[in-house]
Amino acid sequence: MFAFQPLEIKNVTLKNRLVMAPMCMYQSDDSGIVKPFHMVHYPTRAYGGVGLVILEATAVEPRGRISVNDLGIWSDEHVKPLQDLVQAVHQAGAKVGIQLAHAGRKATVQNEPIVAPSAIAFSSQYATPQELSIRDIHDIVKAFQKGAIRAKQAGFDVIEIHGAHGYLVNQFLSPLANQRGDDFGGPIEHRIRFLLMILHAVREVFDGVLFVRLSAEEYAKEGHHIEQTLEVVQAIQPYVDAIDVSSGGVVSVAMDVFPGYQVPFSSKIHQLGIPTIAGGLITTCEQIESILQHQQASLIFLGRELLRNPYFPMHMAKKNQLPEWIIKPYERGFK
Question: What is the pLDDT of residues 86-106, one digit of tens each?
Fold first, then answer.
């Protein structure tokens, strides 16, 4: 099976093509520090058989949290608990990544300033953000760089920059959220600048495996479609090792979701010669095999399915008569 073939990316070998997608768990507190929940949740999926576990959106600034219960990496105090979590995932048999994030105008933390490329609220339920100054932009880029330094200290195999789902990087990329009149707004080559600065800053301190998650389609008339996303990918390709392909989130619009609805976007990006991670309501081994066999992606991310069933990879292994992928403590459960 393609799903159980290893994949080497730079200096990291993933034992198979199955990835736990980053999903917010909202189980920390105002400290942003790893809690007992995280020490169980993430290693459990590693024991379940995925090749790579990617932690939830982890804020590089306190004001960049989606909620007060998000994980953080804005302080040196976060490093040791994250290091303990990395070691636990490694001991459970998987590689581990961290998604560095800033929520921008979609932050909901009280008593913190809400910031964005432009002073445009996400919706009537969200506060109107402050427009970031040039100095603020450089400060946030530095925060991403410091987050990467701490992630490296904690031992993560992969760093992913969150550039999707309407959060700050996505806000800069999208003409729906970015209406600046300076060098960070206007034409697409200017709107990409913030992400390029982050990637350059991260690469100064981290030479390991680097992913970027993008919303390949914004589902809005004046927003980004796959054609604009391909331009973004070509611009950032020298910095990154894979694109984690998602969609939506920059504005509130109806989306037609169905099994594999994001795979065509992954396929188009994959054709540029860069590895991609595809997903979106992927729930069967048949779907996974088809995507990989048709070279529509290099890896498959699983989200809700792994919340329902942490041992999904072992169920796949049993169905396809691959008993070597079922770890000894659980063998009796799969006979």
Answer: 999 999 999 999 999 999 999
CB atoms within 10 A of CB 219: 17
Kindly list the structural domains of the chain, giving each domain's residue range(s) and its CATH number in brackets, ordered by start: 2-8+16-298 (3.20.20.70)
- Dist. CA 62–CA 182, nearest whole Å: 26
pTM of the model: 0.97
pLDDT band, residue 254 (cuts 50/70/90): confident
For the stretch 180-221, pLDDT in tens is: 999 999 999 999 999 999 999 999 999 999 999 999 999 998
Determine the Cα–Cα distance for residues 205 and 301; give it in Å rounded to an integer.
Answer: 27
Number of residues that make up the chain: 335
The structure tokens 């919706």 sit at 123
Tokens representing residue 66 in the block: 């989606």
Average pLDDT value over all residues in the chain: 97
Cα–Cα distance list, 203 to 119, 149, 188, 211, 268 (Å): 30, 10, 22, 12, 26
